[in-house]
Amino acid sequence: MFKGLSKGKIIAGIIALAIAGFFWNMFFPPGGSGANILLGIFVAIFFVYYFTGFFGGLIDQEIFPGGSKERARLLRALLRFAKESQEHLAAIKKSKRRSRKVDARALDDFEQAVIRANMAVSEVQQHYKVDASVMKDQERMLKEAHEHLEKTSKAVLKLDRSWRFLYGIPSLILALFIALLLREFIIEPYQIPSGSMIPSLWVGDHLFVSKFYYGLSKPFTSDPEFLVQWRTPKDGDVVVFKAPPYVGRHAGQAWIKRVIATEGQTVKIENNVIYVDGQPYTHTQPENAVTYMDFFGFGGPNGGTWREQTARKTIEKIDGIVHPIHLAIYPPHPNLAPNWPPKDMRNVPGLSCHENSCTVKKGYVFVMGDNRGNSTDSRVWGGLPVSRIIGKANFIWLSVDGSQKSVQVGPFTLPKFRLDRSFTRII
Length: 427
Hints:
By secondary structure, the protein is an alpha+beta fold. The protein folds into 2 domains: 7-175, no CATH class; 190-425, Umud Fragment, subunit A (Ribbon). It has 8 helices and 20 strands. The strands form 4 sheets. Strands 1, 2, 5, 6, 16, 17, 18, 19 and 20 form a 9-stranded antiparallel β-sheet that branches. The radius of gyration is 30 Å and the shape is elongated. The mean pLDDT is 87.
């Protein structure tokens, strides 16, 4: 884009930035959760790059031709055609299967035509003079090179000029198909939209989820289901799952929690300490008061807001997994109180509850968020069916803090990047 910077490209770049900025603030208002922010950055960069490259050349051609508009149009058309033909020629030579399908003589003529086109482009660019006779000669040379390249490319690609874009479609389809298979079976991106896993995972953390960790998932369906399962979740795993129907209005959304107990295990909580089969998940550090920023109202009509929260932070040990947790100072829900289950808790999905404890039923797991005072989890709605699990959270590859602005240039308002959290493993 910056090679051969011209007046047209500068004007097109300014227009592209204005358009990108308008839509940026429409979809990513300042103070958002940071969800999909990286996708937005990539889209904005590619939009500005291609808009500037294409329309910059068009503006130069029509408004700043440097002489003859016809010469400017022919030069731009041949430059694009020669570049496109060179890519097709390289692809044919690289593939033995394609090479065998093309007549050797026709391929050689095509290669010579590409060389001739590039030489014509170079000659005009080096001697771009505002002289009537020079411009006429250059127009004729560009037109002849274009016609010759058109004729030889048709013999090789078997496509008229207006249909040449189809030549690369099979490779594009294959690339999209491979990407789709990777997402359906191997790995899936996920971003943290709310604070239920703070302090282990923060709002705006972008994760990769291993979909094959527990088994082979049924593809192309809105509800997860294992075709083959070779591993079961264990205590301490951080899993992403589709919220079951009985959670309420958020059913079907992708949630993330930590597995606390598996099928057949008995769970109870006394004074914020979890007991599984009578054994405590000990707190290895004294509790200390902390403040943090949490995001509320994700997915709501008002877009959500950031609010400062307080909690008591400590470290919990689940078997060999040591991770931080937040305990509520003032629990917002009776089921999030220091002692669980409540006496009136009986018939809930996936759990068989008695006065002082609950047993996880077959095919279910008991999950909780690490932000124990702000997590709607199995303490509230019951057990999670193992069949609803999408995969195991592996690592954070990017983290953005939407509660703070770090860069603002015109219409662009970018959040602060938490670089220290990038490429960290999730425990």
